[in-house]
Design goal:
GO terms for molecular function: glutamine synthetase activity. By secondary structure, the chain is an alpha+beta fold. It is about 40% helix and about 15% strand. The chain has 19 helices and 21 strands.
């Protein structure tokens, strides 16, 4: 196993690639990995011999074509115009995915598939998520280099000259959280909720199959050159049980895995591959993993904090962090750093749809679970003593002794966020902020970022506050949060509407031409279809089961309190799910609105449905507790 090939490095020559593949006959298949606008990756099995014989055609995109109408390229690749070409992306690493359940008996090695990141081309235009990020970064780089060429001295970056900046490097990293359990294990929500509140799980010892799977995953990541930094238990979970054979069962706990940053496109590819790796390794150990943002209501969800950095390569070859100031104990950031966070926050309404585009993702963003709900940042109490506020949307991460580590952590992302498109929107917004900030001093920018709501500013909006060093959950009421930091969207429809309601901010993320109107409209159409379908086919049926399970309990001793509780419960049950000739239930009205594409009405009804379901569950819990 030690002589397996795990990675073909970025920018390898065709000759080197062919040579390595011929040395490793256990790699029997090729799979072109295109990323649609929902973040789904394609996977197919192309015999290796086809690739070896026609490698030039793979680079050109003519070797493989796919049915674009079958992936999320909504209103772009249609049934009567579905042809999509798939040229390979040679600028990133190519990973080999080994099937540990299928060995070549002669070679005594597992059979591998070379997964090659690829673009999707429709009518001669790149229409995929990887292309959106790649082309956006090219535009942002060009614009930033132009700014530095015109600005010799930048506040906070006095140790370099603008004319010495030769290249811009975009860095990113993600932190993967996931729930793991044994198949068919039922979650004990009250027990795990209590354990979470009492902080019994975070960084606790892993045991049994979970420990083995975690260790195997980290070792596999090392083999792939992904440089894992840590794997540990997260805040959620419960103690597993041990069967008669000494094996752990009824496992249900939360895990996080972190690894080193990379350039932004490679970071998105790495995340995609690690998710696959985690699934396969844990499955081999008899465990299921769940990457959903909120797999269990009432417990901590799965986040994927996304780290965003930016560096400059000088003509001398030296690389400097553009967010770090010359004097780390004097300033929080350089003016470029201030512009970056200001651009991100000011334009977040049109970034949020790409970060949180599903019912599941918005279920996670609720008060009380350390998930961000407000468009606000934290820098720390003073430059000389870095601190971290975990209640805000995007925080400054810095280390006085390591200027290269300065970055922002966006805490709203989840494992199914389309990182490619989200990063494209983020870096576009950063560019917008830097265009303003590069001509300001760090003191001026700190004052503007720290302004109170109602204060007129040069770039940030008058009626908003953007910085808080307080606990956003505990130190503000909901009314205060809504007033200071804006009202967060409650539904997918509300979130996607921001792309229509804020045309000036939309223009910021479309400026580069890659995340263009065609792509945004296709993304929105695809997400609305998913939103509509999930409510009708999954959420409402699941809620019907809950409503049906809330039955009147027979008892020899029923008090007036029991009768009152049941009457109230039954009233909610009927309101939610019982139709009459004259009146339709909330479920029926919601389905009707969705089927008629009356999404504004459907959005309001979805909010009401959630509120009524929570009220029903709470009332029924109290009702059962009183029925002795």
């Amino acid at each position: 196993m030690d002589d397996l090939l795990f990675v073909i490095p970025a920018n390898s020559t065709k000759e080197d690639i062919l040579s390595k593949l011929k040395e490793h006959p256990e790699i029997k298949f090729v799979s072109l990995v295109g990323i649609d606008l929902a973040g789904n990756d394609t996977d197919e099995k192309i015999p290796m011999q086809v690739f070896l014989e026609d490698i030039d055609k793979f680079y050109e995109g003519s070797a493989v074509q796919t049915d674009g109408s079958s992936v999320v390229l909504t209103n772009i690749a249609t049934l009567n115009n579905a042809k999509v070409d798939m040229p390979v992306d040679s600028a990133v690493n190519w990973f080999i995915d080994y099937n540990m359940e299928n060995f070549d008996e002669e070679l005594e090695k597992p059979i591998g598939t070379l997964r090659i990141p690829s673009f999707l081309i429709h009518e001669d235009k790149r229409v995929d998520s990887r292309a959106v990020l790649t082309d956006t970064l090219a535009f942002v780089k060009k614009e930033l280099l132009g700014l530095f060429a015109k600005k010799e001295v930048v506040s906070g970056l006095e140790h370099i000259k603008g004319s010495d900046v030769e290249d811009i490097i975009f860095t990113s990293a993600t932190e993967l959280e996931f729930w793991v359990k044994t198949p068919l294990a039922e979650a004990d929500i009250p027990e795990m909720s209590a354990s979470q509140v009492m902080q019994e799980q975070y960084w606790q010892r892993t045991r049994g199959a979970v420990r083995s799977a975690l260790e195997q995953t980290i070792l596999a990541m090392q083999a792939y050159g992904l440089e894992p930094e840590m794997g540990h238990k997260e805040v959620g979970g419960m103690k597993g049980h041990m069967d008669a054979s000494g094996n752990m069962n009824h496992v249900c706990e939360q895990i996080e895995i972190d690894w080193k940053f990379a350039n932004a496109v490679q970071a998105a590819d790495n995340e995609l591959f690690v998710r696959t790796l985690v699934k396969e390794v844990f499955r081999a150990n008899g465990l299921e993993v769940n990457f959903k943002a909120k797999p269990m209501i009432g417990l901590a969800g799965n986040g994927e904090h996304t780290h965003i950095g930016m560096a400059a390569k000088l003509k001398s070859g030296k690389v400097i962090n553009l967010f770090s100031p010359k004097e780390m104990t004097k300033d929080f950031m350089s003016s470029v750093g201030y512009g970056a966070i200001m651009g991100l926050l000011k334009n977040y309404e049109v970034i949020n749809p790409f970060v949180s585009s599903t019912n599941d993702s918005l279920n996670r963003l609720k008060p009380g679970f350390e998930a961000p709900i407000c468009i606000v940042t934290s820098l720390g109490h003073k430059p000389e003593v870095p601190s971290r506020n975990r209640t805000i949307l995007a925080g400054l991460v810095r280390d006085i002794k390591s200027p290269m580590a300065t970055r922002f952590e966006l805490r709203a992302c989840n494992p199914y966020t389309n990182t490619y498109v989200a990063l494209a929107a983020i870096y576009s917004a950063i560019l917008d902020g830097v265009k303003y900030s590069i001509n300001k001093t760090t003191d001026e920018l700190l004052d503007e970022l720290s302004k109170e709501a109602g204060t007129v500013a040069g770039y940030l909006e008058k009626d908003r506050a953007y910085r808080s060093e307080d606990d956003v959950f505990e130190d503000y009421t909901q009314e205060e949060r809504d007033h200071l930091f804006s009202i967060p969207p409650a539904t997918v429809w509300e979130n996607l509407q921001a792309l229509k309601n804020f045309p000036e901010k939309r223009a910021v993320v479309t400026a580069g031409g890659a995340l263009r109107d065609q792509i945004i409209d296709a993304f929105v159409s695809g997400e609305l279809i998913r939103w509509k379908t999930e409510i009708i086919s999954r959420i409402i049926p699941e809620n019907r089961v809950i409503v049906s399970a809330c039955k009147e309990i027979a008892s020899t001793f029923v008090t007036d309190q029991d009768a009152y509780n049941w009457n109230k419960i039954n009233g909610i049950r009927c309101y939610l799910a019982k139709d009459s000739i004259d009146e339709k239930s909330l479920f029926t009205l919601l389905i009707k609105a969705l089927n008629e594409n009356d999404f504004a009405t459907a959005s309001g009804l979805q909010i009401e449905m959630y509120d009524k379901m929570e009220e029903l569950k709470s009332l029924y819990s109290d009702y059962k507790m009183n029925m002795i």
